[in-house]
Amino acid sequence: RYRAPVVPVMSVIAAVAVLEVVRSIRYRKVRSIVIISVIFLGVALLSSLPGPFPAEKANYEAELYYAAAGTLKRRNRPDEAVTYYRKALELERNYTEAYYNLANTYAAIGKLQKAIGHYREALDLKPESAMIHGNLAFYLVRQGRLEQAVKHYKEALRIKPDSGRIACDLGRTYAQLERFDLAIESLNKALLLKPDYAQAHSYLAQIYRQKGKPDLAREHFEEAIRLQNKPFPQLRDKTDIIEY
To answer: What DSSP designation does 1 have?
Structure first.
């Protein structure tokens, strides 16, 4: 009775393992076959031991559903992954990683409002996560909610002040709000933290061009090309952004 609720989860994991074995046999990956076989036998032996076990509680089941969801997501089956992430959250309401990865999955299939909602739930549980603040800010930008995005990028940078990427993203968002002085300040900070950051040079070039400073624009544009060997696309509108 302890293991019955996780049978569907184990079935998914077992099916994926079988597919990996078949693929490994096809390509003669002996090491992979051995590793998968050992894992399979280990799981089978542990499952056959008499119970009950202290670990076999709701949180244990939640972790299995979470693992199955990750497997389904990697297999490009996001709708099924969503179902398993939600099941994990039914079993463990304080599962930060499940909220975060459910949000990522919704974002990947274009359901941004649902993604944003679950990022916020993850932040309620882990408010000092720069990564969650950063991802939430990125998708707020995608929805044109730039003021809210700035708030979360600033929080992310407060938590992780040595991140050139976050400083660059904040600068880019300020530029989209046409707050060019703040944008320049943030982008220069990004370059102090990461001097070879081509994106930051590209954004600075665009800002200086809009401010009527062609010499500075050319300097940063040429540096961006030198670092990346190709020009970056211009920011055409509020949704023209770099993946976080």
So the answer is: -
